[in-house]
């Protein structure tokens, strides 16, 4: 982990940052950290943008699991699994979906404990 990092984009569950010293990228998302050089990041971005989300949601429709969209890793015995909300946030982090500063917040976007007295 680099000490001189600059945040490129962030969402509720993660952030994409670049080290200004070594020019490597760190993608922290939920409990997963990816570290890439520029070419690896571009390849990962392309891979995520080509995931057929509708196929995986239909394929996993018979299961009760919330996370149904897999992302294969280089280790054949390790597959990361995401739900639709997480995939959309990952796409926002990677710049596949553009972040709009004027988007209306949904209740899921607000990370605040509301106490009614």
How is this structure best described in words?
The protein is an alpha+beta fold and 117 residues long. It has a single domain (5-97), classed as Transcriptional Co-activator pc4, Chain A (Roll). Helix content is 25%, strand content 26%. It has 3 helices and 6 strands; from the N terminus they run ββββααββα. It has helices at 38-49, 53-59, 84-93, and strands at residues 5-11, 14-19, 25-29, 32-36, 69-72, 79-82. The strands form 2 sheets. The chain has a 4-stranded antiparallel beta sheet with strand order 1-2-3-4. The protein has a two-stranded antiparallel sheet with strand order 5-6. The protein is globular. The chain starts with a strand and ends in a 24-residue tail after the last helix.
